[in-house]
Design goal:
With 56 residues, this protein is an all-alpha fold. It contains two helices and no strands. It has helices at 2-9, 12-53. It is rod-shaped.
Length: 56
C-alpha cells in the first residue's frame, strides 16, 4: 500500500512527460519553419537560374 501511495505522490513522471511534450512542440514548429524556408529558397534559386540561362 505504501508503494502505491509513493507512486501517486511522485511527480517526476509527469514532469518528464511535460518536457517531452514541450520538446515535441518545438520540433514541430522548427520543422514547419524550415520547410517554409526551404520552399522560399527553392523558388529564389529557380528564379536566379532562370534569369542566368536567359542572359539577364
Amino acid at each position: 500500500m505504501m508503494t502505491i501511495r509513493k507512486m501517486i505522490r511522485d511527480n517526476k513522471g509527469a514532469t518528464a512527460i511535460e518536457y517531452g511534450l514541450i520538446a515535441a512542440l518545438i520540433a514541430v514548429a522548427a520543422i514547419a519553419a524550415m520547410s517554409n524556408l526551404g520552399n522560399t529558397l527553392n523558388t529564389t534559386f529557380n528564379k536566379v537560374a532562370s534569369n542566368m540561362s536567359q542572359g539577364k
